[in-house]
Amino acid sequence: MNNVIGPEEIEQLDIPLDEIANTIGEAFLAGAAGDIIWKPKTLLVGEDGAFQMSTYAAWRQRNLSLFHMLFGPTADAILKGAPAYSSRQYALERSSGAPIGLIDGTYTSSILPAGITRLLTGKLARTRSGIATIIGAGTQARLNLEALDGVLPIREVRIVTRSQASAESFAAFVRQRGQTPVITTAGQAALSDADIVISTIPASPGLKPFLDPAWVEPGTFVNVVDLGRSWLPGFEAFDRMIVDDRVQAEQQFRDGRLLHGGPFDSEIADILNGSRPTRLSENERVVLVHPGNVVGVIGVTAAILEFRAGLRSGAPGLRGRKAEGSSCVDRSVTPP
Q: What is the pLDDT of residues 229-268, one digit of tens each?
C-alpha cells in the first residue's frame, strides 16, 4: 500500500487534545446510538508471552471502517529492549471499501487514555480537586497530567515510581508547569487526601500489584490507565466503577488481561448521554477503568484523518507545548 501514515506525520499534525477528546466522545455516543458497529478484541497469546490482538469497527456518519491490529513480543524480547507492542490501523471508506491508508497506531494507543481522562474527569472528580497522585512517571503520567489542564485546579502532584531518575525528571516537568511535585513512596500516605489518583504503570515481567483500594479516601476519583495492574483486589468496594465497555471488560477479565472484573455501574457512553449520573456526592469514591476499545480508537483515527485532510484545525496541541524533540508516543504501556 502506498498510503502509509507514520508516527512522525501524525505528530506533526499537533492535534489539540480537546479535539481528540471531543471526537472520542462523539464516537462513544455514536456507538451507543448504533451509528458505530464494532466487535470486542480477539486475543491470541502464546506460552512465551507473545500476543496478537485484533478488532474492527465501522462509523456510518464518518464513512469510516477500521481494522485495528496489535502484536506484542515475548517477555524475553522486551527484557532485551524490544518495544512492548506494535500497532496498526487499516482504514477504509465504509461506503465503498476503498482503502484510505495503513496508519501506525502508536500515537493512537498513547493519546487515547489521555483523551478519556480529558473527557471524563470533569464529570467524575470533585471540581475543587487540588491534589493529584500519579502512579508512574513516564509518558502516560505526563500526558494524563496535561489532560487535567483547565479541568481541575491541580496545585500538588504526588509522584510514585520505582525509579528515582524518572521521579526527578517528572518532578522537574511538574515544576515547569507551576505545580508542586512531591516524590513519595507507594503506601497509604501517597493516597491520603488525594482528590484524584491516576495509575499509569506499564507492563513489566514480575510486576505485582501494590496499591490497596482500601487506602482510597471518600471523595477521591481513581483513574485507571494501566488495566489495574498496580492495584490489589478490592475495586468492588468503590461506590461506583465505570468502564469504557462492559462486555469487553468482562471478556478481558476472563482472559486475564484485566485484573478487576466489576461489577460495573456504568459505561462511558452512559455518562456522556445522561442515562447514568455523573458524580453523586462529595464523598463518593469513583473508579474509571478504561482498558481501551475500538470505539475510542476509531474516534482518534477519525480526528487524525480529518486533520490530515485539512478538514479541521485548532490551537496547538500537546506537541506544541513540549520541549524540542519530545514526543507523545509511548510504546511501554499496554495498548488499547
A: 899 999 888 999 999 988 887 777 777 667 777 788 999 9
The domains of the chain are located at 4-108+294-321, 123-289
**Strands across the sheet containing 64-72:** 4-5, 99-104, 86-93, 64-72, 51-59, 36-45
Q: Which three cell numbers stand for residue 66?
A: 477500521
Three-class secondary structure assignment of 112-160:
HHHHHHHHHHHHHCCCCCCEEEEECCCHHHHHHHHCCCCCCCCCEEEEE
DSSP assignment string, 60-78: TTTTEEEEEEEEE--HHHH
Provide the CATH number for the domain formed by 4-108+294-321 in this structure: 3.30.1780.10
Q: CB 139: neighbour CB atoms within 10 A?
A: 20
Query: Which three three-digit cell numbers place residue 202?
Result: 506499564
The amino acid occupying position 71 is F
The predicted-structure confidence for 57-106, as pLDDT tens digits, reads as follows: 999 999 999 999 988 888 788 777 777 778 999 999 999 999 999 999 98
Amino acid symbol at 126? R
Buried b (16+ CB within 10 A) or exposed e, 92-101: bebeeeeebb
The three grid cell numbers given for residue 114, joined into one nine-digit string:
489521555
Total-model pTM: 0.88
Contacts of residue 136, Cβ cutoff 8 Å, sequence gap at least 6: 160, 161, 199, 200, 201, 202, 226, 230
Distance CA 129, CA 229 (A): 25
- Of the candidates 154, 184, 183, the one whose C-alpha atom is nearest the C-alpha of residue 171 is 183
> Superfamily assignment of 123-289 in CATH?
NAD(P)-binding Rossmann-like Domain (3.40.50.720)
